[in-house]
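Practice problem. Given the sequence and the SMILES for glutathione, write out the predicted structure.
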Amino acid sequence: MRDRTITIYAATNLPPMLIGAVRDLRAVWAAEELKLPYHLHWLDAQNGEHRADWFRAFNPFQKFPAIDDGGTALFESGAIVAYLADKARRLIPPPGALERTQHDQWIYAAVNTIEPSVFDLFVLGMMPPDMPGLAERRERSMQQAKERLGALDRVFHSRAYTTGDDFAAADIVMAHVLTFGRDESLFDGLDMVKDYLRRCTARPAYQRALAIQTAGKPANAA
Ligand SMILES: N[C@@H](CCC(=O)N[C@@H](CS)C(=O)NCC(=O)O)C(=O)O
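Answer key:
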């Protein structure tokens, strides 16, 4: 019989600036939030273990995260978070309901509308200051990020979380996307977004997921 414990493939041996940023944290956060049993299969990111051919069966793009649930392989952090919430029947409306589409639109908004410019700023923050074109690219991304985060800020004037007054699976993705915003000035004047991010990242399940990514593969793990 196949092992029905969910395996989450996660990156270990991360350089300090990537701690908290690798998207397997979204899968671990979801599993922790939903109290689903799981185990971690660590891959040494710096030594390219995820580039091994066998890992394509779990993620054709050979990126983190991927999961294996008793022979069902899934990739893309947003899809994984929704799958785990469906499995636990918590934090997500049932498939087929209009509310489910309205929920899922926030996962797409997080990864498609908010993430590109906020992630670009995160990447640019790791570049050498004399990189050609850095200032222009930074300004472009900052402008786009601020415009889109401004829209998100307005949403949070009428509700506490993306889909309503309760924390939902989509908030795992949205809040983690916002953690890419390491340059504090990104959130200037965006008090509702700042407060949303503070509330989401104060959740014990996020804190556990962050601690797990920070610690990486335990020395005594197989
Ligand atoms: N859209 C994907 C992005 C996955 C992704 O880019 N993961 C990065 C880490 S955050 C990765 O695996 N990078 C390692 C590499 O590209 O070699 C998702 O949300 O799951």
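Check your answer against the key. The mean pLDDT is 96.
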